[in-house]
Amino acid sequence: MEEMNFEEAMEALEKIATELEKGDLSLEESVAKFEEGIALSKKCSDIIEKAEKKITMLLQKDGKLEEENFTVEE
Amino acid sequence: MTPNPISVTELNLYIKDRFQKDEYLNNVLIKGEISNFKNHYTGHMYFTLKDENSLIKCVMFKGYTANLGFMPKDGMKVIVFGTVSVFERDGVYQIYAKGMKQEGMGDLHEEFEKLKLKLEQEGLFDKSHKKSIPVMPKCIGVLTSNTGAVIRDIINVSTRRNPNVYIKLLPVPVQGAGASEKIAKAIEIMNEQKLADVIIVARGGGSLEDLWPFNEEIVARAIYASELPVISAVGHETDFTIADFVADLRAPTPSAAAELAVPNILDLVQKIQNNERRLQNGLKKKAEIMRLRYEKCMSSKAFTDPLDRINKNYMLLDKQIKRIESSTNMKVKEKKTYMVEWIAKLDTLSPLKTLTRGYSIVEKNGKMVKSINDLNSKDKISIKLTDGEKQAEIL
């Protein structure tokens, strides 16, 4: 699950929610799926929350790309 | 000098007549710049054609405007084909245009269509090749000029939707010679180092020549080769470039591109919460079903009244015993009645019964005497009466 990106985690989460809603699983399976779902939900939230605002500009310097902070000139 | 003056109308009609007789004026090609353009609601177009020193009025009637293929606007350099004639009411001469072409544009349009057809046939526009845009890209690469409204709009829209957005601008010239090569190169650089999760190639509005780099094959091929999804946002909503056709997604404007690339964080948070609620409800429902099953099970007789069956069997046993008892009683009663009947019958045959009527039984030596011949004098006899017996002697 560590390598999952947001979409994969969200997709897996939606799939589990649908499975749980159907109610065909045993109670033990339901609880296991629930826990898995909550972990996925947390993963999604983490991806959103851990993002940091960054606006940068890539500049070619001596054949190398350098990333600099960028602010719009008004 | 004519002695009799003519009317203004007559003069204008005369001039008009002269114009119409002039073959050259009937089919004339004029080049110039459009100004005062008015697209009248009736469908006719009115404008002025001018150069540095001079101008002439122009009208293009509805019947001809349909074939134009572009919308004329002020400042546009055009070649007009038509007739010069007089509008006698106003006393002016003007061009009655039958056709119009953008000067210098003819080649570009042709080139555009040719390249479009070629790339289309090669499959560069195929839907199947188009990649989907990630829902939550970690980093958005923007290829455009580092000055001007475009990058500003993209940053504004992006940060509004996601305050923690990560945008990497790779500045490129967006018009003029060499721009297309630099744009193509920038797409390659982004891909080589996977510098972003999605690329926006953007430029503000402009003339066809201004937008031209985005109509060049080198850019089209770079977009097609890009492993990172590309959103094109070139010019205004009405401008279509080759880049738009090849891109994985076409945005009508740079701001729209930002909206397509950057998710609205509030929507995503809500989506996550919705799914969490679905999980909770799903589990709750399951638990509820299990509880109902448990209750149903526990409410069965086996658990609520375990003695019930035993008691029921006891009752059955009791019933059976009663049945046996009553049938035995019946049999006993039957036998009794039978016996009573027989006793009564016996009774009527019994000699004792005869005795009660006054008869008696005579016995000699324990044997019943039935004939007078059996008796002799001095014989000892016993006489049985109903209430006893007495000894006697024959005389």
Question: What labels would you give this structure?
Answer:
heterodimer, A: 74 residues, 2 helices, B: 395 residues, alpha/beta, OB fold (Dihydrolipoamide Acetyltransferase, E2P), Rossmann fold, 4 domains, 5-stranded mixed barrel, 5-stranded parallel beta sheet, 13 helices
The side-by-side strand order for the widest beta sheet of chain A comes to: 1-2
Gyration radius over CA of chain B: 64 Å
Biggest sheet statistics of chain B: 5 strands, mixed, barrel
Report the helical percentage of chain A: 55-70%
Oligomeric form of this entry? heterodimer
Structural class of chain A: alpha+beta
How much beta of chain B, percentage-wise? 15-25%
Strand runs of chain A, count:
2
Count all strands of chain B and give the number: 14
Describe the protein's topology:
The complex is a heterodimer of chains A (74) and B (395).
Chain A (H helix, E strand, L loop, with lengths): L5 H17 L4 H24 L3 E8 L2 E6 L5
Antiparallel strand pairs in A: 1-2
Helix pairs in contact in A: 1-2
Chain B lengths: L7 H14 L1 H4 L1 E12 L5 E6 L4 E6 L1 H4 L11 E11 L4 E11 L2 H18 L17 E5 L4 H13 L4 E6 L7 H14 L5 E6 L13 H9 L4 E5 L7 H5 L2 E2 L3 H8 L3 H34 L2 H4 L3 H42 L1 H6 L4 E4 L2 E2 L11 E6 L2 E6 L2
Parallel strand pairs in B: 3-5, 6-7, 6-8, 8-9, 9-10
Antiparallel strand pairs in B: 1-2, 1-4, 2-3, 4-5, 11-12, 11-13, 13-14
Helix pairs in contact in B: 5-9, 6-7
Overview of the structural elements:
The complex is a heterodimer of chains A (74) and B (395). With 74 residues, chain A is an alpha+beta fold. Chain A has one domain. Helices cover 55% and strands 19% of the residues of chain A. Chain A has helices at residues 6-22, 27-50, and strands at residues 54-61, 64-69. In chain A, strands 1-2 form a two-stranded antiparallel ribbon. The mean pLDDT of chain A is 87. Helix content of chain B is 44%, strand content 22%. By secondary structure, chain B is α/β, with parallel strands linked by helices. A five-stranded mixed barrel of chain B has the order 1-2-3-5-4. Chain B is built from 13 helices and 14 strands. The model of chain B has no long low-confidence stretch (mean pLDDT 89). Chain B folds into four domains: 8-103, Nucleic acid-binding proteins (OB fold (Dihydrolipoamide Acetyltransferase, E2P), Beta Barrel), CATH 2.40.50.140; 109-126 and 136-263, 3-Layer(aba) Sandwich (Rossmann fold), CATH 3.40.50.10550; 302-348; 352-393, no CATH class. In chain B, helix 6 (179-192) packs parallel to helix 7. The N and C termini of chain B lie far apart (223 Å). Chains A and B meet through helix 1, helix 2 and strand 1 of A and helix 5, strand 7 and helix 10 of B.
